[in-house]
Amino acid sequence: MSDVARETGDRFQPKFDAQGLMTGVVVDASTGEVLMVAHLDEEALAATRETGLAHFHSRSRGTLWCKGETSGNTLRVQEILVDCDQDALVIKAQPAGPACHTGARTCFYRRLADDGLLQRIAS
């Protein structure tokens, strides 16, 4: 597929990187708040589309995982937005609990300051 067709056409042709992954940015469908960033391979993308629950590729374990499979803090997908060159996704989801493994609502609970990290959201 040509770059022009990928960037302007209506055919979904996900563009995975050399490791077979693409970036997924998960946002709360109700508030727009960024919840987490993870990676999807073909298997995770297919499972997400099939089940309606966000699935990702665990780079540390090298396996498929469904967000919340052990904690119950799943992400029910409402909509998936595809970027212009189809190598990144924005996944709008309804969270069933905290998105971060630390127990924080979002993985982005700190902000970068001059001398380090400052808490921005109570975890």
User: What is the typical, i.e. mean, pLDDT?
Assistant: 93
Query: Main beta sheet: strand number and arrangement?
Result: 4 strands, mixed
CATH topology title: Ubiquitin-like (UB roll)
Strand order of the largest sheet: 2-1-6-5
How many separate domains make up the residues? Answer: 1
Do you know the CATH architecture? Roll
- Percent in strands: 35-45%
Radius of gyration: 15 Å
Distance between the termini: 45 Å
Helix content: 10-25%
What does it look like?
The protein has 123 residues and is mainly beta. It has one domain (3-97): Ubiquitin-like (UB roll) (Roll). The chain is 13% helix and 37% strand. It is built from two helices and eight strands, in the order H-E-E-H-E-E-E-E-E-E. The protein has helices spanning 3-8, 42-51, and strands spanning 22-28, 34-40, 55-58, 63-66, 75-82, 88-95, 110-113, 116-119. The strands form three sheets. It has a four-stranded mixed β-sheet with strand order 2-1-6-5, with helices on one face. The chain has a two-stranded antiparallel ribbon with strand order 3-4. The N and C termini lie far apart (45 Å). The model has no long low-confidence stretch (mean pLDDT 93).
Write a brief caption for the model.
The chain has 123 residues and is mainly beta.
Indicate the topology:
Elements: H1 3-8, E1 22-28, E2 34-40, H2 42-51, E3 55-58, E4 63-66, E5 75-82, E6 88-95, E7 110-113, E8 116-119
Parallel strand pairs: 1-6
Antiparallel strand pairs: 1-2, 3-4, 5-6, 7-8
